[in-house]
Design a protein that fits this description.
The complex is a heterodimer of chains A (413) and B (324).
Chain A (H helix, E strand, L loop, with lengths): L16 H4 L10 H4 L21 E2 L18 H26 L13 H9 L6 E3 L5 H6 L4 H9 L31 H15 L6 E6 L6 H13 L3 E7 L2 E2 L2 E2 L12 H4 L4 E5 L3 H16 L5 E6 L22 H4 L3 H12 L4 H24 L18 H12 L8
Parallel strand pairs in A: 1-7, 2-3, 3-4, 4-8, 7-8
Antiparallel strand pairs in A: 5-6
Helix pairs in contact in A: 3-4, 3-12, 3-13, 4-10, 6-13, 7-8
Chain B lengths: L2 E3 H15 L3 E5 L15 H5 L4 E3 L4 H14 L2 E5 L10 H7 L3 H4 L9 E6 L14 H5 L5 E3 L4 H13 L4 E6 L7 E3 L13 E4 L4 E5 L3 H14 L4 E5 L2 E3 L3 H11 L2 E8 L4 H13 L8 E5 L9 H4 L3 H13 L1
Parallel strand pairs in B: 2-3, 2-4, 5-7, 6-7, 10-11, 10-13, 13-14
Antiparallel strand pairs in B: 1-8, 6-12, 9-11
Classes of the chains: A alpha/beta (413), B alpha/beta (324).
Chain lengths: 413, 324
């Protein structure tokens, strides 16, 4: 971290008690305890790796020991399962980018470097909780039980794709795992998650909704709307902001003049907490705290997971155009996979051989899924006109029949 | 049958459905204690309480975004946007989310809600309390758009809209909120979506109108009759998907058609209706179809009665079409 060139963050001035009083996490970082940190000062160019600041919740230390004050107390099997889920995400990212470069799929938007934030927060949910993804959270959806084949079918837009080939890759959904549908506009899912959790509260059902978005989305209308409604109606919503440093090419300091993203919560009357997003134990701790707050009827929490987008925005982006590759190195040193792997080596007898074995097995599963997806035909012409309305109205029936009767496009599957 | 104005009829429909279906919730700016700025929801807060008649923060995007979330959970929200002119902060949610939710999830999810909003001019509301934005929603795949003209239709169409599986924009012509009076059936009463109403039979010219302009079309038809022109007047009721069969049947009979709407002329719903008539009844036409509409300007304050397609502008179009 010392090699970071970013200015010293003002966050280090935050009272250390925030992180060290033993009840670390969202539950106590309420408006009252944060007023001091809202002192007006110059806008500080922040860096998401400023995780050493006192108010940032962390657990996994550099020496691969866990801070007992924030240790979520996972079993060995749980930690290994989490690592496996993270590795699967990484294997997917690697192979899907390759598929896109080969022209076999059109697009991929990955989660390289953000695996701990995504898998850790999904792990911390209860079975009844719902997940409103942004689009990088396929690892979380898979963790919740979305079949790999379903995801890969979505990448190919074939007839088995849950979106029936109507959306770009990485716009999946899976009701059974309580994962809602993804759209590309920024922030729109935030108010929806609030309304969903609000409805559950009105019906007195015990569940929470977690909604994911990047730090860029904190500039959107719906971030403000969502947190405002959630604050007023005390909805059981967990706002999970993946502060990965970049909104395509625009860095964090162009999204806000606030000192942190978490402190925006104060204005909406809810707690905000910063967490080392590359520390899966800390992510689990703060997300669990937020779920528990929601379950107690205390309302919403804003979590700022400080992580880093190691890849480009998507396969359509070349980050070298705005981010010299060398500046990424300090973040590579904080790779959440490497940190967890070191921990596994030290405490759970993990070996390089097991690592290779696991990767080979994940890779084999994926190859099989890709093979099946590629062998599946595209959606039918008729399906283009279904699901617009519950029943196909006359004008769509006319247009469908015209298309079916007419000539086929070049390269029609 | 009780006599009601449109405000009372909509209130009656909401009350009926809320008693019957606990999933129905109302939300919006001022819809609670005060009963809405037009008093459409008056008394519902007292009967159903704060959990089902919800005064929200002042943000249309927030209202519709959270309503979509509620719908995903299984409630049937009926949010009110105080004026149709203020719906645009929610346009992203309506266009990108509400309209596409079933389609983009391959039918796995759907977001069912009815957005009620007063539309149209005639209350001296200037740019921002007068517009008729139906075309901006009809052009979006996945939305149904409804606009009643009579109290009975307001009740019957609203109950049909709430029970319909698709998202509905329910446009209420505020100019006739209290001016339109009529008998409204008590209890359960549904007017099916997608069915126009031939309000007046006639053989010479078809007049297609909806909302507050239905009354202007009827007035023009009466004055045309004095000149010996027998108009058939079609109240569209559901603007999209529209009842093309009723329109085409009428035009095949008369061979002449005038479409009336308050919204600007270019790319208005009238343009689509005329195009459809050309496609489906071209050889029956005896005269070019005509549109009498608002102008392609912002809605004016002082000159609003010049802007609106009132009967004094409809009548010459009818005469010209009849004599072509």
């Amino acid at each position: 971290m010392s090699s970071m060139s970013a200015p010293k963050p003002a966050a280090t001035e935050a009272p250390a008690a925030d992180a060290l009083d033993g009840s670390n996490g969202a539950s106590h970082v309420g408006p009252a305890s944060r007023v001091e940190s809202l002192a007006v000062g110059p806008a500080v160019a922040r860096h998401p790796g400023d995780t050493k600041a006192a108010d940032v919740v962390k657990c996994l230390r550099d020496d691969s020991t866990l801070d007992p004050r924030t240790d979520p107390g996972l079993s060995s099997a749980e930690v290994i399962a989490l690592y496996e889920a993270m590795l699967r995400t990484r294997v997917l990212d690697d192979r899907l980018v390759a598929l896109q470069r080969q022209g076999r799929i059109g697009f991929h938007i990955g989660s390289l470097g953000e695996e701990a934030s995504i898998i850790g927060s999904a792990f911390a949910l209860r079975p009844q909780d719902w997940l409103f993804p942004c689009y990088r959270e396929f690892g979380g959806a898979l963790w919740r039980g979305m079949p790999l084949q379903r995801y890969v079918d979505n990448m190919f837009g074939n007839a088995n794709d849950p979106a029936k080939g109507r959306q770009m890759p990485d716009h999946y959904c899976f009701r059974q795992a309580k994962v809602t549908s993804i759209s590309s506009p920024i922030g729109t899912q935030i108010t929806q998650a609030v309304g969903f959790a609000w409805a559950a509260k009105l019906k007195k059902d015990d569940l929470a909704a977690i909604v994911y978005f990047g730090e860029g989305a904190t500039s959107s209308n719906e971030f403000h709307n969502g947190l405002n409604f959630a604050g007023v109606f005390k909805t059981p919503t967990i706002f999970f902001c993946r502060n990965n440093g970049w909104a395509i090419s625009v860095p964090t300091e162009r999204q806000t003049a606030s000192r942190t993203f978490a402190e925006k919560a104060v204005a909406y009357g809810m707690p905000g907490v910063r967490v080392d997003g590359n520390d899966i134990f800390a992510v689990i701790k703060v997300t669990r705290d937020a779920v528990e707050r929601a379950a107690r009827g205390e309302g919403s929490t804003l979590i700022e997971a400080m992580t880093y987008r190691l890849s480009g925005h998507s396969t359509s982006d070349d980050p070298k155009a705005y981010r010299p590759d060398g500046t990424v190195d300090p973040w590579r040193a904080q790779d959440p996979m490497a940190r967890l792997r070191r921990y596994l080596h030290k405490h759970h007898g993990w070996t390089d051989a097991r690592d290779k074995e696991l990767e080979a097995s994940l890779d084999a599963d994926l190859r099989e899924a890709i093979k099946a997806a590629e062998a599946t035909a595209g959606p039918s012409l008729e399906s283009m006109f279904e699901d617009v309305f519950a029943e196909v109205p006359w004008h769509l029936a006319e247009q469908r029949d015209e298309l079916v009767r007419g000539p086929r496009a070049k390269g029609h599957p | 049958m009780p006599q009601m104005n449109m405000v009372q009829a909509i209130n009656d429909a909401l009350r009926f459905e809320m008693r019957k279906d606990p999933r129905v919730v109302l939300m919006g700016e001022d819809v609670g204690k005060v009963g809405g700025v037009f008093r459409v929801t008056q008394g519902l807060f007292d009967e159903f309480g704060d959990d089902r008649v919800i005064d929200t923060p002042l943000s249309e995007g927030g209202i519709i975004g959270t309503a979509i979330g509620m719908a995903l959970y299984g409630l049937v929200p009926v949010p009110e946007i105080q004026f149709g002119d203020f719906i645009f902060p929610a346009y992203d949610q309506i266009v990108s989310e509400l309209a596409k939710y079933r389609y983009r999830s391959g039918g796995e999810f759907s977001a069912k809600l009815v957005i009620r909003t007063p539309v149209g001019g005639g209350i001296r509301g200037g740019h921002y309390h007068s517009q008729s934005p139906e075309a901006q929603f009809i052009h979006v795949a996945g939305l149904k758009v409804v606009c009643p003209a009579t109290p009975a239709d307001a009740k019957g169409l609203l109950l049909a809209s709430i029970r319909d599986p698709d998202p509905v924009l329910f446009f209420e012509p505020k100019r006739v909120y209290r001016a339109a009076k009529g008998e409204v059936p008590e209890g359960d009463f549904v007017v099916p979506l997608g069915k126009a109403n031939v309000v007046k039979q006639g053989g010479d010219v078809t007049l297609v109108a909806w909302g507050a302009m239905l009354y202007e079309a009827l007035d023009a038809a009466q004055k045309a009759a004095e000149k010996g022109i027998d108009c058939e007047v079609v109240d569209l009721r559901t603007l999209w998907p529209l009842d093309i069969d009723t329109i085409v049947q009428s035009v095949k009979k008369t061979g002449r058609v005038v479409v009336v709407h308050e919204a600007p002329k270019s790319c208005g719903l009238g343009s689509e209706i005329v195009a459809l008539i050309n496609e489906k009844a071209f050889l029956h036409l005896e005269a070019p179809p005509k549109r009498v509409t608002g102008f392609d300007t912002p809605f004016p304050y002082t000159l609003e009665n010049e802007y609106l397609p009132l009967s004094h502008r409809i009548l010459p179009a009818v005469v010209e079409t009849a004599q072509y």
